[in-house]
Design goal:
The protein has 1 helix and 17 strands. It has 226 residues and is mainly beta. It has 2 domains: 121 residues, Immunoglobulin-like (Sandwich), CATH 2.60.40; 94 residues, Sandwich (Immunoglobulin-like). The strands form 4 sheets. Strands 2-9-8-4-6 form a 5-stranded mixed β-sheet, with no helix packed on it. Strand 14 and strand 15 form a beta hairpin. The protein is elongated and about 70 Å long. The two termini are 33 Å apart. The N terminus is likely disordered.
């Protein structure tokens, strides 16, 4: 049933919210660089002439927890409340959209009556111009690189790198200490498919920006799109 719901959610627009009117269906938050959680509030009011019951609510990611006005689910005409969504920042970076959905009495299982979106803008202090380097099988084992720049008031240095595959050699080229680096990755062989996770550790003072990941992939050449 959840599979059917997620398929619907990808296509759905706004639906009538069973009499509840929300001040905002999208809440944008610009998170502080050291934040571990952020909270979005969606205020609403029952502007119909009948009581409205929130039958249930859900979210599409374990990184969000949801509360509805301290557990109150029934709203008489004129009553209002708040949907409070708490987003766990984890290792997310950039602009992240997370969704909360509500069903009201009478809503079909696959068509919730209200879709709410939390959009979190998370600072990226250590910026990789790409995160996946690719080679095709039997291609020349050329060195490929990832450009790394520091977008922070203080210098951030790369202090270590590790790779999950011995087939890839990883080197750091310092262009400007604390500000600009290149990550150079060279496969020893491209004879077989393979995947490696490259871990880049920095001395950033903010824990959630301290470690980055990149990937090196050797794969079969993909057929052209028809």
């Amino acid at each position: 049933m959840r599979t059917a719901f997620f398929s619907w959610l990808a296509m759905a627009g706004f639906l009538h919210a069973g009499g509840l009117v929300f001040e905002q269906e999208l809440v944008e938050i610009h998170a502080p660089m050291d934040a571990k959680t952020v909270v979005a509030e969606f205020k609403f009011e029952n502007k119909s002439d009948k009581p409205v019951t929130i039958a249930k609510f859900d979210k599409v990611c374990a990184c969000i927890s949801v509360q509805v006005s301290d557990g109150k689910l029934n709203y008489a005409p004129g009553e209002g409340g708040v949907i409070r969504a708490t987003f766990e920042m984890g290792n997310f970076a950039g602009v992240i959209d997370k969704t909360v959905v509500l069903w009201f009495d009478g809503d079909p299982e696959n068509k919730p009556g209200q879709v709410l979106t939390v959009r979190v803008h998370i600072p990226v202090l250590v910026v990789m111009n790409e995160k996946t380097l690719k080679w095709t099988i039997d291609s020349p084992p050329e060195t490929r690189k990832i450009d790394i720049t520091i977008d922070y008031s203080q210098p951030i240095k790369i202090v270590a790198t590790t790779c999950t595959s011995e087939n890839f050699k990883v080197e750091v080229n310092t262009l400007e200490a604390g500000k600009h680096y290149e990550l150079l990755v060279t496969p020893a062989s491209t004879k077989a498919p393979g995947l490696a996770i490259i871990r880049v550790e920095t001395d950033c003072e903010i824990a959630r920006h301290k470690v980055l990941q990149a990937f090196a992939v050797i794969r079969r050449e993909l057929p052209p799109n028809p």
